[in-house]
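Reagents: none. Just compute today. 3-oxoacyl-[acyl-carrier protein] reductase.
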Amino acid sequence: MDVREAAPAVVTGGSRGIGRAVVERLAAYGAPVVFGYATERARAEEVVEAVRAAGGSAWAVRADLAEPDGVDRLFAGADEHLGGRLGVLVNNAAVTGRTAFADASAEEFDRVLAVNARAALLAMQHAERRMAGGGRIVNISSVSTAWPAADEALYAASKGALEQLSRVASRALGPRGITVNTVSPGTTDTDLLRDAVPAEAREAVAGMTPLGRLGRPEDVAAVVAYLAGPDAAWVTGQNIRADGGLV
Ligand code: NDP
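Predicted 3D structure written out:
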């Protein structure tokens, strides 16, 4: 099955950053794409318009993945536009929950884990039910599992959970012809990075990166597109770092 060229896709967090680049890349290969977002309606509409202007098909569905029924709402929207079919799922949406270790609260733990890990588990369950002829699942983690900062307890814990869910899912869904892989970006120039890391520190990380710059959303989208495509048919349970050699 050539999932890359035509299979319908769902991408979480497609309104900006890496998710937007993934949506645009999959749509450019001819995939109809439904993507989720939380609050940024105008930016989501901009992505839909950009995809359509380039000749592709995309629809945006608002669904807060911190809510227990957020994933159900996303897939209800996806079914409406994709007719219940699915070939590719990319779990990309995340929040940083950056806070001093001593201030990490129970409420914040639950919120960060819900968006970054629980939603991915529930989305994979939804995907399995719709991937009748096999499929591709790509989960976006982070180099923070290998190189966690002191104020990233919740984020790093959530990404650690996501990586394990991904490995387990590769075993559970393999017999259905579904591959499950993880992509771990390094520091990538998006809102998430700019909100969490001051400009000086961003420049310092670019200087420490062997390839000499920050990542771009398109750098990560290219790796996702490979894993979502026919050339990766024999690759599952892997975690690929797309970080310019940082870690
Ligand atoms: P951005 O902050 O730029 O975009 C986040 C996306 O997730 C947006 O589309 C946002 O929607 C959506 N989102 C956030 N919270 C929710 C929620 N509660 N419910 C539904 N959707 C939500 O992030 P990036 O593009 O930087 O990151 C994408 C992925 O890459 C994440 O998994 C992140 O952890 C990972 N990553 C990023 C790195 C970086 O340096 N940028 C480094 C390593 C990993 P809305 O626009 O509506 O808010």
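The first helix runs from residue 3 to 6.
Action item: order primers for follow-up constructs.
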